[in-house]
Amino acid sequence: MSEAVAVAKAHQAPPCTVVILGASGDLAKRKLLPSLYNLRACGRGMLAPDTVILGFARRQIETGEFRAQAREAISHYSRIEIDESCWNDFAGRLDYLGGLDQPGGFHKLKKRLEEAETAHKLPPNRIFYLAIPPQAMSAAVENLSSAGLINPANSANFTRVVIEKPIGHDLKSAVELNRTLHRYLDESQIFRIDHYLGKETVQNMMVLRFANSIFEQMWNNRYIDHVQITVAESEGVGTRAAYYDQAGALRDMMQNHMLQLMTMLSMEPPVSLDAAAVRNSKLDVIRSLRPIPPEQVRSIAVRARYAGGIIDRQSVRGYLEEAGVAEASRTETFVAMKAYIDNWRWSGVPFYLRTGKRLPHRASAIFVQFKDVPTILFNRQGALQPDVLTLRIQPDEGFSFEVLAKEPGFDVAIKPVKMNLSYQSEFTGHSPDAYERLLLDVMTGDHTLFLSGEFVRLSWQLLQPILDAWRDDPAIPMEVYPAGGWGPDGAETLIRNDGRSWRNV
Protein backbone atom coordinates (compact mmCIF):
# COMPACT_ATOMS: atom_id res chain seq x y z
CA MET A 1 0.00 0.00 0.00
CA SER A 2 1.45 3.39 -0.99
CA GLU A 3 1.91 6.12 1.62
CA ALA A 4 -0.67 8.35 -0.12
CA VAL A 5 -3.26 5.58 -0.11
CA ALA A 6 -2.54 4.80 3.55
CA VAL A 7 -3.06 8.44 4.52
CA ALA A 8 -6.29 8.59 2.53
CA LYS A 9 -7.62 5.46 4.21
CA ALA A 10 -6.71 6.82 7.64
CA HIS A 11 -8.81 9.91 6.95
CA GLN A 12 -11.59 8.35 4.89
CA ALA A 13 -15.03 9.50 5.90
CA PRO A 14 -17.79 6.97 6.61
CA PRO A 15 -20.52 6.50 3.98
CA CYS A 16 -23.16 9.20 4.28
CA THR A 17 -25.47 11.52 2.37
CA VAL A 18 -24.53 15.19 2.22
CA VAL A 19 -27.58 17.41 1.74
CA ILE A 20 -26.75 20.97 0.66
CA LEU A 21 -29.62 23.31 1.49
CA GLY A 22 -29.19 26.23 -0.89
CA ALA A 23 -27.40 24.14 -3.50
CA SER A 24 -28.02 26.68 -6.27
CA GLY A 25 -26.20 29.47 -4.40
CA ASP A 26 -22.67 30.85 -4.70
CA LEU A 27 -21.28 29.02 -1.66
CA ALA A 28 -22.27 25.63 -3.06
CA LYS A 29 -20.86 26.44 -6.49
CA ARG A 30 -17.63 28.10 -5.41
CA LYS A 31 -16.70 26.01 -2.38
CA LEU A 32 -18.85 23.05 -1.41
CA LEU A 33 -19.21 21.14 -4.68
CA PRO A 34 -15.55 21.66 -5.73
CA SER A 35 -14.37 20.59 -2.27
CA LEU A 36 -16.52 17.47 -2.27
CA TYR A 37 -15.26 16.56 -5.74
CA ASN A 38 -11.65 17.06 -4.61
CA LEU A 39 -12.21 14.78 -1.63
CA ARG A 40 -13.62 12.13 -3.96
CA ALA A 41 -11.17 12.59 -6.84
CA CYS A 42 -9.20 9.55 -7.96
CA GLY A 43 -6.06 8.91 -5.94
CA ARG A 44 -7.39 10.72 -2.87
CA GLY A 45 -10.45 8.77 -1.92
CA MET A 46 -11.16 10.52 1.39
CA LEU A 47 -14.83 10.69 0.49
CA ALA A 48 -16.37 7.24 0.79
CA PRO A 49 -17.08 5.99 -2.76
CA ASP A 50 -20.77 5.35 -2.03
CA THR A 51 -21.41 8.83 -0.59
CA VAL A 52 -24.37 10.66 -2.14
CA ILE A 53 -24.62 14.45 -2.50
CA LEU A 54 -28.15 15.81 -2.67
CA GLY A 55 -28.75 19.43 -3.61
CA PHE A 56 -31.89 20.94 -2.08
CA ALA A 57 -32.99 24.44 -3.08
CA ARG A 58 -35.99 26.52 -4.08
CA ARG A 59 -35.48 26.32 -7.84
CA GLN A 60 -37.15 23.53 -9.79
CA ILE A 61 -34.57 22.08 -12.16
CA GLU A 62 -33.79 18.61 -13.41
CA THR A 63 -30.99 16.58 -11.85
CA GLY A 64 -29.19 16.57 -15.21
CA GLU A 65 -29.10 20.35 -15.25
CA PHE A 66 -27.82 20.42 -11.66
CA ARG A 67 -25.02 18.04 -12.64
CA ALA A 68 -24.11 20.23 -15.61
CA GLN A 69 -24.01 23.30 -13.36
CA ALA A 70 -21.91 21.40 -10.83
CA ARG A 71 -19.41 20.38 -13.51
CA GLU A 72 -19.10 23.97 -14.69
CA ALA A 73 -18.54 25.16 -11.10
CA ILE A 74 -15.97 22.47 -10.36
CA SER A 75 -14.14 23.17 -13.63
CA HIS A 76 -13.91 26.83 -12.69
CA TYR A 77 -13.22 26.72 -8.94
CA SER A 78 -11.58 23.37 -8.16
CA ARG A 79 -7.84 23.23 -7.50
CA ILE A 80 -7.84 19.84 -9.28
CA GLU A 81 -8.55 19.38 -12.98
CA ILE A 82 -11.55 17.21 -13.75
CA ASP A 83 -10.74 13.61 -14.56
CA GLU A 84 -13.47 12.06 -16.71
CA SER A 85 -13.64 8.72 -14.94
CA CYS A 86 -13.71 10.39 -11.53
CA TRP A 87 -16.29 12.89 -12.72
CA ASN A 88 -18.59 10.18 -14.08
CA ASP A 89 -18.48 8.37 -10.75
CA PHE A 90 -19.01 11.62 -8.81
CA ALA A 91 -21.83 12.82 -11.07
CA GLY A 92 -23.63 9.49 -10.72
CA ARG A 93 -24.02 10.25 -7.02
CA LEU A 94 -25.17 13.85 -7.48
CA ASP A 95 -28.90 14.36 -7.04
CA TYR A 96 -31.16 17.41 -6.83
CA LEU A 97 -34.54 18.31 -5.35
CA GLY A 98 -36.36 21.63 -5.70
CA GLY A 99 -39.06 23.08 -3.47
CA LEU A 100 -37.12 23.99 -0.33
CA ASP A 101 -39.53 26.89 0.24
CA GLN A 102 -42.69 24.95 -0.62
CA PRO A 103 -45.17 23.36 1.82
CA GLY A 104 -44.20 19.75 2.28
CA GLY A 105 -40.77 20.36 0.77
CA PHE A 106 -38.91 18.78 3.68
CA HIS A 107 -41.16 15.71 3.67
CA LYS A 108 -40.30 15.30 -0.02
CA LEU A 109 -36.67 15.62 0.98
CA LYS A 110 -37.06 12.77 3.45
CA LYS A 111 -38.61 10.57 0.77
CA ARG A 112 -35.84 11.37 -1.72
CA LEU A 113 -33.18 10.66 0.91
CA GLU A 114 -34.66 7.28 1.72
CA GLU A 115 -34.84 6.41 -1.98
CA ALA A 116 -31.19 7.38 -2.50
CA GLU A 117 -30.06 5.42 0.54
CA THR A 118 -31.89 2.34 -0.66
CA ALA A 119 -30.58 2.65 -4.21
CA HIS A 120 -26.96 3.08 -3.11
CA LYS A 121 -27.16 0.74 -0.09
CA LEU A 122 -26.25 3.60 2.23
CA PRO A 123 -26.82 3.74 6.00
CA PRO A 124 -28.93 6.75 7.09
CA ASN A 125 -25.90 8.84 8.06
CA ARG A 126 -26.90 12.37 7.08
CA ILE A 127 -25.19 15.76 6.95
CA PHE A 128 -27.31 18.84 6.34
CA TYR A 129 -25.22 21.81 5.22
CA LEU A 130 -27.23 25.04 5.64
CA ALA A 131 -25.84 27.17 2.80
CA ILE A 132 -28.81 29.49 3.17
CA PRO A 133 -29.38 33.07 4.46
CA PRO A 134 -28.93 33.48 8.24
CA GLN A 135 -32.58 34.42 8.76
CA ALA A 136 -33.71 31.10 7.26
CA MET A 137 -31.62 28.81 9.48
CA SER A 138 -33.99 28.47 12.44
CA ALA A 139 -36.90 27.57 10.19
CA ALA A 140 -34.76 25.05 8.29
CA VAL A 141 -33.78 23.22 11.48
CA GLU A 142 -37.40 23.21 12.65
CA ASN A 143 -38.50 21.80 9.30
CA LEU A 144 -35.81 19.11 9.38
CA SER A 145 -37.11 18.05 12.78
CA SER A 146 -40.79 18.12 11.84
CA ALA A 147 -40.06 15.96 8.79
CA GLY A 148 -38.35 13.37 11.00
CA LEU A 149 -34.90 13.99 9.56
CA ILE A 150 -33.02 14.51 12.83
CA ASN A 151 -32.01 11.41 14.76
CA PRO A 152 -31.10 11.58 18.45
CA ALA A 153 -27.41 12.11 19.18
CA ASN A 154 -27.06 8.58 20.60
CA SER A 155 -28.50 6.88 17.50
CA ALA A 156 -26.52 4.26 15.62
CA ASN A 157 -26.53 6.53 12.56
CA PHE A 158 -25.52 10.17 12.79
CA THR A 159 -27.29 13.40 11.91
CA ARG A 160 -25.04 16.47 11.65
CA VAL A 161 -26.00 20.04 10.79
CA VAL A 162 -23.48 22.57 9.49
CA ILE A 163 -24.16 26.24 10.25
CA GLU A 164 -22.50 28.95 8.16
CA LYS A 165 -21.62 32.35 9.56
CA PRO A 166 -22.88 34.82 10.46
CA ILE A 167 -24.33 33.01 13.47
CA GLY A 168 -26.78 35.67 14.51
CA HIS A 169 -26.92 39.40 13.81
CA ASP A 170 -26.12 40.46 17.38
CA LEU A 171 -25.96 38.96 20.86
CA LYS A 172 -29.73 38.55 21.20
CA SER A 173 -30.27 36.85 17.84
CA ALA A 174 -27.23 34.58 18.33
CA VAL A 175 -28.59 33.41 21.68
CA GLU A 176 -32.01 32.80 20.11
CA LEU A 177 -30.50 30.80 17.24
CA ASN A 178 -28.49 28.66 19.63
CA ARG A 179 -31.64 28.00 21.67
CA THR A 180 -33.42 26.86 18.52
CA LEU A 181 -30.53 24.61 17.55
CA HIS A 182 -30.40 23.04 21.01
CA ARG A 183 -34.16 22.49 20.96
CA TYR A 184 -33.74 20.01 18.14
CA LEU A 185 -30.05 19.04 18.20
CA ASP A 186 -27.42 18.04 20.68
CA GLU A 187 -24.31 20.25 20.68
CA SER A 188 -22.35 17.25 19.35
CA GLN A 189 -24.53 17.34 16.20
CA ILE A 190 -23.89 21.04 15.45
CA PHE A 191 -20.91 22.17 13.36
CA ARG A 192 -20.56 25.97 13.25
CA ILE A 193 -18.09 26.53 10.45
CA ASP A 194 -15.42 29.21 10.09
CA HIS A 195 -13.41 28.47 6.97
CA TYR A 196 -10.39 30.44 8.25
CA LEU A 197 -9.76 27.65 10.74
CA GLY A 198 -9.21 25.24 7.86
CA LYS A 199 -6.35 27.27 6.37
CA GLU A 200 -2.91 25.70 6.55
CA THR A 201 -1.23 28.53 8.47
CA VAL A 202 -3.95 28.58 11.08
CA GLN A 203 -3.61 24.82 11.41
CA ASN A 204 0.13 25.30 11.86
CA MET A 205 -0.19 27.76 14.75
CA MET A 206 -0.41 25.06 17.37
CA VAL A 207 2.50 23.15 15.83
CA LEU A 208 4.62 26.29 15.64
CA ARG A 209 3.95 27.12 19.28
CA PHE A 210 3.72 23.78 21.02
CA ALA A 211 6.16 21.67 18.99
CA ASN A 212 8.96 24.27 19.01
CA SER A 213 10.32 25.17 22.43
CA ILE A 214 11.96 28.37 21.19
CA PHE A 215 8.65 30.13 20.57
CA GLU A 216 6.60 28.92 23.51
CA GLN A 217 9.25 30.17 25.95
CA MET A 218 8.88 33.69 24.52
CA TRP A 219 5.09 33.61 23.99
CA ASN A 220 4.16 36.02 26.79
CA ASN A 221 4.19 39.62 27.98
CA ARG A 222 7.84 39.47 29.05
CA TYR A 223 9.01 39.27 25.45
CA ILE A 224 6.13 40.31 23.17
CA ASP A 225 5.38 44.00 22.71
CA HIS A 226 2.16 43.68 20.74
CA VAL A 227 0.32 41.61 18.11
CA GLN A 228 -1.28 42.78 14.86
CA ILE A 229 -3.85 40.84 12.83
CA THR A 230 -4.78 42.15 9.39
CA VAL A 231 -7.31 40.64 6.99
CA ALA A 232 -7.39 42.73 3.82
CA GLU A 233 -9.74 42.28 0.88
CA SER A 234 -9.30 44.06 -2.44
CA GLU A 235 -12.79 43.32 -3.72
CA GLY A 236 -15.91 45.29 -2.85
CA VAL A 237 -19.27 43.87 -1.86
CA GLY A 238 -20.01 42.55 -5.36
CA THR A 239 -23.20 40.48 -5.47
CA ARG A 240 -23.39 40.29 -1.66
CA ALA A 241 -24.62 43.87 -1.18
CA ALA A 242 -28.06 42.84 0.08
CA TYR A 243 -26.46 40.76 2.83
CA TYR A 244 -23.46 42.96 3.49
CA ASP A 245 -25.43 46.18 3.96
CA GLN A 246 -27.25 44.48 6.86
CA ALA A 247 -24.01 43.15 8.33
CA GLY A 248 -20.88 45.23 7.85
CA ALA A 249 -17.24 44.44 8.58
CA LEU A 250 -17.63 43.99 12.35
CA ARG A 251 -20.28 41.29 11.97
CA ASP A 252 -18.91 39.78 8.76
CA MET A 253 -15.26 39.44 9.79
CA MET A 254 -14.38 40.64 13.28
CA GLN A 255 -16.91 38.61 15.29
CA ASN A 256 -15.80 35.33 13.75
CA HIS A 257 -12.61 35.14 11.64
CA MET A 258 -10.60 37.76 13.51
CA LEU A 259 -11.47 36.62 17.02
CA GLN A 260 -10.84 33.02 16.02
CA LEU A 261 -7.36 33.89 14.78
CA MET A 262 -6.69 35.81 17.97
CA THR A 263 -7.73 32.96 20.25
CA MET A 264 -5.79 30.35 18.26
CA LEU A 265 -2.66 32.49 18.55
CA SER A 266 -2.98 33.28 22.25
CA MET A 267 -4.55 30.22 23.91
CA GLU A 268 -2.83 28.18 26.58
CA PRO A 269 -1.53 24.71 25.63
CA PRO A 270 -4.55 22.38 25.61
CA VAL A 271 -4.29 19.27 27.77
CA SER A 272 -4.60 17.16 24.59
CA LEU A 273 -5.47 17.46 20.90
CA ASP A 274 -8.98 16.31 21.65
CA ALA A 275 -11.60 18.68 20.25
CA ALA A 276 -13.04 19.53 23.67
CA ALA A 277 -9.61 20.37 25.07
CA VAL A 278 -8.71 22.68 22.18
CA ARG A 279 -12.08 24.43 22.29
CA ASN A 280 -11.82 24.92 26.05
CA SER A 281 -8.41 26.57 25.68
CA LYS A 282 -9.87 28.99 23.13
CA LEU A 283 -12.84 29.68 25.40
CA ASP A 284 -10.50 30.62 28.23
CA VAL A 285 -9.00 33.32 26.01
CA ILE A 286 -12.28 34.88 25.01
CA ARG A 287 -13.46 34.78 28.61
CA SER A 288 -10.32 36.78 29.48
CA LEU A 289 -10.85 39.51 26.89
CA ARG A 290 -11.26 42.88 28.55
CA PRO A 291 -14.89 44.09 28.36
CA ILE A 292 -15.52 47.24 26.33
CA PRO A 293 -17.36 49.98 28.29
CA PRO A 294 -19.64 52.05 26.02
CA GLU A 295 -17.76 55.24 26.85
CA GLN A 296 -14.50 53.71 25.53
CA VAL A 297 -15.81 52.60 22.13
CA ARG A 298 -14.55 55.71 20.37
CA SER A 299 -11.02 55.21 21.71
CA ILE A 300 -10.63 51.51 20.89
CA ALA A 301 -12.65 50.99 17.67
CA VAL A 302 -12.69 52.78 14.31
CA ARG A 303 -15.20 52.32 11.50
CA ALA A 304 -15.13 53.54 7.93
CA ARG A 305 -16.42 52.83 4.44
CA TYR A 306 -14.68 53.00 1.09
CA ALA A 307 -15.16 55.77 -1.44
CA GLY A 308 -14.27 55.56 -5.11
CA GLY A 309 -10.64 54.96 -5.99
CA ILE A 310 -8.13 52.95 -7.98
CA ILE A 311 -7.25 49.27 -7.51
CA ASP A 312 -4.95 47.45 -9.93
CA ARG A 313 -5.08 50.51 -12.19
CA GLN A 314 -8.83 50.17 -12.46
CA SER A 315 -11.27 52.81 -11.29
CA VAL A 316 -13.80 51.42 -8.79
CA ARG A 317 -16.87 53.05 -7.28
CA GLY A 318 -17.53 53.81 -3.65
CA TYR A 319 -19.64 51.71 -1.31
CA LEU A 320 -22.70 53.99 -1.48
CA GLU A 321 -22.66 53.69 -5.27
CA GLU A 322 -22.71 49.87 -5.22
CA ALA A 323 -25.88 48.22 -6.54
CA GLY A 324 -28.08 47.07 -3.68
CA VAL A 325 -26.66 49.42 -1.03
CA ALA A 326 -29.16 51.71 0.67
CA GLU A 327 -28.73 55.38 -0.13
CA ALA A 328 -28.61 56.33 3.56
CA SER A 329 -26.53 53.30 4.60
CA ARG A 330 -24.50 53.53 7.81
CA THR A 331 -22.75 50.21 7.21
CA GLU A 332 -18.99 50.06 7.70
CA THR A 333 -16.66 48.29 5.28
CA PHE A 334 -13.58 48.71 7.49
CA VAL A 335 -12.97 48.14 11.20
CA ALA A 336 -9.89 48.57 13.33
CA MET A 337 -9.88 47.89 17.05
CA LYS A 338 -7.63 47.28 20.03
CA ALA A 339 -8.15 44.45 22.50
CA TYR A 340 -6.50 43.18 25.66
CA ILE A 341 -6.41 39.68 27.13
CA ASP A 342 -6.40 40.07 30.90
CA ASN A 343 -4.61 36.91 31.99
CA TRP A 344 -1.12 36.13 33.33
CA ARG A 345 0.38 35.40 29.91
CA TRP A 346 -0.88 38.42 28.00
CA SER A 347 -1.49 41.14 30.58
CA GLY A 348 -0.61 44.54 29.11
CA VAL A 349 -0.02 43.28 25.55
CA PRO A 350 -2.28 45.08 23.05
CA PHE A 351 -3.79 43.17 20.12
CA TYR A 352 -4.52 45.39 17.11
CA LEU A 353 -7.04 44.00 14.62
CA ARG A 354 -8.09 45.50 11.31
CA THR A 355 -10.10 44.29 8.35
CA GLY A 356 -11.60 46.00 5.35
CA LYS A 357 -12.78 45.86 1.77
CA ARG A 358 -11.28 47.66 -1.22
CA LEU A 359 -7.81 47.67 0.30
CA PRO A 360 -4.77 47.54 -2.03
CA HIS A 361 -4.64 43.76 -2.27
CA ARG A 362 -5.95 40.55 -0.74
CA ALA A 363 -3.81 39.40 2.15
CA SER A 364 -4.16 38.06 5.68
CA ALA A 365 -1.34 37.99 8.18
CA ILE A 366 -0.52 37.97 11.89
CA PHE A 367 2.48 39.91 13.17
CA VAL A 368 3.97 39.10 16.58
CA GLN A 369 6.33 41.96 17.41
CA PHE A 370 8.89 41.38 20.15
CA LYS A 371 10.10 43.99 22.61
CA ASP A 372 13.06 46.25 21.89
CA VAL A 373 16.47 45.34 23.25
CA PRO A 374 17.92 47.61 25.97
CA THR A 375 19.47 50.88 24.77
CA ILE A 376 23.03 49.67 24.99
CA LEU A 377 25.57 48.32 22.51
CA PHE A 378 24.13 48.50 18.98
CA ASN A 379 21.18 50.83 19.47
CA ARG A 380 22.85 53.68 21.35
CA GLN A 381 22.98 55.74 18.17
CA GLY A 382 19.34 55.08 17.27
CA ALA A 383 16.50 52.63 17.66
CA LEU A 384 16.88 49.22 16.06
CA GLN A 385 14.05 47.52 14.26
CA PRO A 386 12.30 44.95 16.46
CA ASP A 387 12.22 41.22 15.82
CA VAL A 388 8.92 40.18 14.22
CA LEU A 389 7.37 36.78 13.61
CA THR A 390 4.96 36.93 10.65
CA LEU A 391 2.33 34.27 9.99
CA ARG A 392 1.03 34.60 6.43
CA ILE A 393 -2.46 33.13 6.07
CA GLN A 394 -3.07 34.15 2.47
CA PRO A 395 -2.16 34.28 -0.33
CA ASP A 396 1.40 32.92 0.17
CA GLU A 397 0.85 30.68 3.18
CA GLY A 398 3.85 30.35 5.45
CA PHE A 399 5.76 32.25 8.09
CA SER A 400 8.90 34.33 8.47
CA PHE A 401 11.05 35.52 11.37
CA GLU A 402 12.62 38.94 10.93
CA VAL A 403 15.83 39.44 12.93
CA LEU A 404 18.86 41.74 12.74
CA ALA A 405 22.20 40.80 11.25
CA LYS A 406 25.49 42.52 10.46
CA GLU A 407 26.12 43.36 6.85
CA PRO A 408 29.45 42.10 5.45
CA GLY A 409 32.20 44.69 5.63
CA PHE A 410 34.53 46.56 7.99
CA ASP A 411 31.81 48.69 9.57
CA VAL A 412 29.16 47.42 11.97
CA ALA A 413 26.14 48.01 9.76
CA ILE A 414 22.99 46.26 10.94
CA LYS A 415 20.23 45.20 8.62
CA PRO A 416 16.96 43.30 9.15
CA VAL A 417 16.88 39.89 7.44
CA LYS A 418 14.14 37.29 7.12
CA MET A 419 14.19 33.59 7.81
CA ASN A 420 11.33 32.59 5.57
CA LEU A 421 9.20 29.49 5.06
CA SER A 422 6.73 29.20 2.20
CA TYR A 423 4.54 26.11 2.27
CA GLN A 424 4.38 26.08 -1.50
CA SER A 425 8.15 25.94 -1.94
CA GLU A 426 9.01 23.86 1.14
CA PHE A 427 6.47 21.06 0.82
CA THR A 428 5.51 19.00 -2.20
CA GLY A 429 1.90 18.43 -3.15
CA HIS A 430 -1.07 20.71 -2.93
CA SER A 431 -2.54 21.93 0.32
CA PRO A 432 -6.23 21.06 0.63
CA ASP A 433 -8.73 23.89 0.46
CA ALA A 434 -10.07 24.97 3.85
CA TYR A 435 -13.53 23.67 3.01
CA GLU A 436 -12.13 20.26 2.04
CA ARG A 437 -10.56 19.87 5.46
CA LEU A 438 -13.64 21.11 7.30
CA LEU A 439 -16.12 19.01 5.31
CA LEU A 440 -14.01 15.93 6.01
CA ASP A 441 -14.01 16.82 9.72
CA VAL A 442 -17.81 17.05 9.69
CA MET A 443 -18.04 13.60 8.12
CA THR A 444 -15.67 12.11 10.69
CA GLY A 445 -17.31 13.98 13.56
CA ASP A 446 -14.27 16.04 14.59
CA HIS A 447 -15.26 19.35 16.25
CA THR A 448 -11.72 20.69 16.79
CA LEU A 449 -11.91 23.40 14.12
CA PHE A 450 -15.53 24.40 14.72
CA LEU A 451 -17.05 27.04 16.96
CA SER A 452 -18.88 26.11 20.13
CA GLY A 453 -22.15 27.79 21.04
CA GLU A 454 -20.47 29.37 24.05
CA PHE A 455 -17.71 30.88 21.90
CA VAL A 456 -20.33 32.45 19.64
CA ARG A 457 -22.18 33.91 22.63
CA LEU A 458 -19.05 35.34 24.24
CA SER A 459 -17.78 36.84 20.98
CA TRP A 460 -21.06 38.68 20.46
CA GLN A 461 -21.08 39.73 24.10
CA LEU A 462 -17.65 41.32 23.65
CA LEU A 463 -18.60 43.28 20.52
CA GLN A 464 -22.19 44.23 21.38
CA PRO A 465 -21.16 47.50 23.10
CA ILE A 466 -19.49 48.60 19.87
CA LEU A 467 -22.59 47.81 17.82
CA ASP A 468 -24.79 49.62 20.33
CA ALA A 469 -22.58 52.70 20.40
CA TRP A 470 -22.40 52.90 16.62
CA ARG A 471 -26.17 52.63 16.44
CA ASP A 472 -27.01 55.08 19.21
CA ASP A 473 -24.26 57.71 19.18
CA PRO A 474 -24.39 59.93 16.06
CA ALA A 475 -21.20 61.67 17.21
CA ILE A 476 -19.12 58.57 16.44
CA PRO A 477 -17.81 59.25 12.94
CA MET A 478 -18.14 57.05 9.91
CA GLU A 479 -14.79 57.79 8.32
CA VAL A 480 -14.15 57.47 4.59
CA TYR A 481 -11.09 56.00 2.86
CA PRO A 482 -10.32 55.81 -0.85
CA ALA A 483 -10.54 52.42 -2.52
CA GLY A 484 -6.98 51.20 -2.95
CA GLY A 485 -5.81 52.76 0.33
CA TRP A 486 -5.06 51.09 3.66
CA GLY A 487 -8.05 52.49 5.50
CA PRO A 488 -8.98 55.70 7.30
CA ASP A 489 -6.84 58.12 9.27
CA GLY A 490 -8.54 56.98 12.46
CA ALA A 491 -6.99 53.51 12.13
CA GLU A 492 -3.54 55.06 11.92
CA THR A 493 -4.27 57.26 14.92
CA LEU A 494 -5.52 54.27 16.92
CA ILE A 495 -2.15 52.53 16.80
CA ARG A 496 0.06 55.64 16.51
CA ASN A 497 -1.26 56.96 19.84
CA ASP A 498 0.43 53.95 21.45
CA GLY A 499 3.75 54.69 19.71
CA ARG A 500 3.32 51.90 17.16
CA SER A 501 2.41 51.58 13.48
CA TRP A 502 0.66 49.09 11.20
CA ARG A 503 2.92 46.66 9.41
CA ASN A 504 2.64 46.10 5.67
CA VAL A 505 1.01 42.89 4.47
Describe the protein's architecture and organization.
The protein is α/β, with parallel strands linked by helices and 505 residues long. It is 37% helix and 20% strand. The protein folds into 2 domains: 3-193, Rossmann fold; 197-371 and 452-496, Dihydrodipicolinate Reductase, domain 2 (2-Layer Sandwich), CATH 3.30.360. The chain has helices at residues 3-11, 26-40, 63-77, 84-91, 105-119, 137-146, 171-184, 200-210, 213-218, 241-247, 249-266, 275-288, 297-300, 423-426, 434-444, 453-472, 489-496, and strands at residues 17-21, 52-56, 94-97, 126-130, 159-163, 190-192, 224-232, 301-307, 309-311, 314-316, 334-340, 350-356, 363-370, 388-394, 398-406, 414-422, 479-482. The strands form 3 sheets. A 9-stranded mixed β-sheet has the order 16-15-14-13-7-12-11-8-17, sandwiched between helices. Strand 15 and strand 16 form a beta hairpin. Helix 2 packs across helix 3, helix 2 (26-40) crosses helix 15 (434-444) and helix 11 crosses helix 16 (453-472). The longest helix is centred in the C-terminal third of the chain and has 20 residues, at 453-472. It is globular, with a radius of gyration of 24 Å.
Rg over CA atoms, rounded to whole Å, is 24 Å
Low-confidence stretches: 1-10
SS content category: alpha/beta
Number of domains: 2
CATH topology of the largest domain: Dihydrodipicolinate Reductase, domain 2
Major β-sheet profile: 9 strands, mixed
| CATH class membership of the largest domain | Alpha Beta
